[in-house]
Queue: 2 jobs
Job 1
Amino acid sequence: MGALLVPPSGMATPQAISLGNYQVSYRTQPRQLIVYGTNDVALMVRDAAGNPLMDGTIIVHPRMVTMAMFAPDARAVVTSDAQYHAHIVFPMAGEWHLTIELRRPGLAALQAVIPVSVHWR
Ligand SMILES: [Cu+2]
């Protein structure tokens, strides 16, 4: 399919999750997410036929795993290369769950969780 290209060195290898009938590949920049840093989560959503989904709305809800701590929701912005980019500011290092919510008009919202770990600088 060519969906998962070899990333430039220093970039995280794309990983994938299922979101309903969609496949979501994602990677982070930087590879190691950091507290109060500029963290970009790039997601590509493909339908069952392998076509990129461009017209969805993706909201990322960050929540800490070990305590009731949240970071501000991030609305992902889709770029011309069909990647949705969410910028997330983490207030604390540790294990986080990014709940990825996909909305499309007239359809029920879909959610899936991406586990990430966040480090101090
Ligand atoms: Cu915390």
Job 2
Amino acid sequence: MLRTHCQTSGWSLAAQDVFNNVPRTCIEAAAAVAGHTQSLHTNSLDEALGLPTDYAARIARNTQLHLKHEGNMAHVIDPFGGSYLVEDLTQQLVEKARQHIAEAESLGGMAAAIEAGVPKLRIEEVATATQARIDSGSQTIVGVNKYQPQDSGDAEQVEVRRIDNSEVRSQQIARLKTLRKTRNQAAVDVALQALQQAAAGTENLVPFAIEAARQRATVGEMSDAMAREFGRHRATIQGVRGVWKQHMQASADMDLLKDRVDEFSKALGRAPRILVAKLGQDGHDRGQKVIASAFADLGFDVVTGPLFQTPDEVYDLAISHDVDAVGISTLAAAHLSQVPQLRKKLDAGASRHIELVVGGVIPPGDIPILERDGAAAVFLPGTKSTDAAMRLLDLLARRRNIS
Ligand code: B12
């Protein structure tokens, strides 16, 4: 029997007016239960602020208890059985999925499609279009782009789970050292060698990986063993251009931004140039990509950095492209250590001031710390790209006396 697990969306949960996240999750969970899921994960109301607190996780768990015990939703197996609407929506989903599968097959299969960067590009296109609809208000997010609370300090009202990542890092390094000292290194080497040999052939790699794990090889060592045969995938960055603008509605903000970018270009002889970069082990690149797409469509000259860079690498990229600003997109809670490092490097090295701004999942309580350590502006989830562009132009213009 095909069993299904469902998780409610993390993307749909906002950093602003966070108690709206409870009904959002409840509606999504009810859809999953009505759709007959056998296993369910409900997200916490603090999803866009950090890892869940116990308080938020309890509400997420209780949402399931409500559906089961008070809504009695688990009593009926298939409440929408026979619904024409649901059948039609399912059919539309099947057709869209088939189009994507056909595209991948026409490129020579999924591995070849990934190599060509196509699945990633399709994801970025829809994410950019969605961002434009949110930016222009044609897609409503309650409490974010419409019906905002009077008091905008709402995010501060909930407790945010805080993790000292330098402490976690040193603990992990210590654990790794102990592991390496106490395991049978000869057995680890044999298992890794066998994994590498299997990767050179056509054998199923899973039993070899399990054996390596039993000998206490790390995930990094197993990956390296396979990478020696396969090499590593390097994603090519293909900017999505024109999609954001196509989905934006004409507005006074758009006109003003166009004038301001033109003004800047006239004064400097070129468009304002920004590097939108990712630091550290944070693999979340959607915010980076949508911001890069929106800024490019607004007339900025945008450089999009690769994933997993060190502050030194971001600095080198910024200098080699002679950018006016670096925008760091950070979602994995390493902002307090990495952003100040980059600011120091920029201050020590660049012959002129390079503006540094930061966006992503940042607990509001960390904003003053980031600002103290050199971030000129901080943009939380839910930021309108037009607002971010306006703010950045303010910062750049201030330094150059451009109106
Ligand atoms: C989608 C998502 C994923 C996707 C990422 C896909 C991808 N290619 O990006 C997947 C499923 C792969 C994923 C994986 C993981 N995730 Co995740 N993920 C999310 C989620 C739900 C949404 C992020 C997103 O795409 N938002 C949409 C974009 C458009 O918004 P955004 O990035 O915030 O950008 C906006 C603003 O922040 C701002 N902005 C952002 N950057 C910049 C830059 C500039 C220059 C400017 C001006 C503005 C700006 O403007 C943008 C437009 O408004 C968040 C929760 C959340 N709601 O934020 C968790 C979240 C970020 N993930 C989290 C975690 C823990 C993980 C995992 C570690 C889980 C795991 N144990 O494996 C892995 C890590 C993978 C890795 N290597 O990093 C945590 C991080 C916790 C923390 N910070 O303390 C979060 C916060 C969820 C949570 N509460 O637990 N994730």
